[in-house]
Amino acid sequence: MVYFIGAGPGDVDLITVKGRRMLQEADVVIYAGSLVWDAHLQFCKEGCEKHNSASMTLEEVINVMVKAENEGKLVVRLHTGDPSIYGAIREQMDCLDEHKIEYTVIPGVSSFVASCAAIKKEFTLPNVSQTVIITRMEGRTPVPEKEDLELLASHKCSMAIFLSVQDIDKVVEKLKKGYGREDVPVAVVYKATWPEQQILKGRLNNIAAKVKEAGIKNFSQILVGDFIEGDYERSLLYHPEFTHGFREGSK
């Protein structure tokens, strides 16, 4: 059996209880060493076989899984954040299907929600935004034309942009065109929940300079939208005059 587990954004205590338990029981662990904090490995049992996938190909990863399965071993594939977001797990699962190997996915805390927690904000505010767009800038990995950052920004909702801080000038240029203004609040969170976490706040007209001054080139979330600062309406859910299935509102 293979378990795909989200290790969380960094802090080893942000893995789920189930994820930690399976990590402790694993006979073989394949971890994304370029992104997953190796402090997670301290929870592996003695004799656990560990493989850093940063230098491995898909075929090499699958070969380790197949060998372990043939030997009756429990395998954990440890991914950063939540494996369903930029985790490249679909291709691994398809290979396991071909080998008729069973697998389970255990979700994790994504860096985009960890980053929002780090700046102590809420993506979805009444009368501000009820939508969060999770995306990335095109680079060596292409993005479908209909998902161009400028087009997505035209919705003017909350955004969490992965894998793009190295192209901050281009990101800002597209966001300005999409939002139609230069004063949109932005937060860049470097390595959310890690000991070296760093938070930069600004607006579209100055965030690129701040990123460059800080020397940030990777491992960052770019959060964009008026949820970061500004006015919002009170939630109806807890309004004394609002009636719902669990409470009668006052007149």
TrEMBL record:
The keyword Electron transport does not apply. The keyword Lipoprotein does not apply. One of its GO terms (molecular function) is precorrin-4 C11-methyltransferase activity. SUPFAM superfamilies: Tetrapyrrole methylase. Keywords: Cobalamin biosynthesis, Methyltransferase, S-adenosyl-L-methionine, Transferase. Transmembrane segments: none annotated. Coiled coil: none annotated. Residues 1-207 form the Tetrapyrrole methylase domain. It holds the Pfam family TP_methylase. GO terms for biological process: cobalamin biosynthetic process; methylation. Belongs to the precorrin methyltransferase family. This is Cobalt-precorrin-4 C(11)-methyltransferase.
